[in-house]
Write a structure and sequence with these properties.
Helix content is about 65%, strand content about 0%. By secondary structure, the chain is mostly helical. It has a domain at about 25-85.
């Protein structure tokens, strides 16, 4: 049986402003953001992560660069965890090489 929309909306939890605050290890978060700044900066080597971050930074407004840095930092953390758990080797241009193989 379907409930009316108003009933569904009334049961949804209210998101508190404090829940949006960063949590976790402060030092690790700082290191990830600094790494993202380096990746997106002028000395960062070419990689899929850098290309994705620069494309994200180009899209839009005043805070696009800041959002791109945080997004790259998060993606870097996920990538490092995945490499660590899986024991894989890092390939900086993995998606680019995959696309080139599909075209050829």
């Amino acid at each position: 049986m379907r409930r009316p929309v108003s009933t569904v909306c009334d049961t949804l939890p209210v998101v508190d402003a404090l829940e949006a605050q960063p949590k976790g290890d402060r030092y690790l978060r700082t290191m990830m953001v600094q790494g993202a700044h380096y990746i997106l900066g002028p000395f960062g080597e070419d990689s899929d992560l850098r290309r994705w971050g620069l494309k994200l930074a180009e899209r839009g407004g005043k805070n696009a660069k800041k959002r791109a840095v945080v997004a790259v930092a998060r993606k870097l953390a996920v990538l490092l965890h995945r490499l660590w758990v899986g024991g894989e080797v890092y390939e900086p241009l993995r998606n680019s090489q995959k696309a080139m193989r599909e075209v050829a």
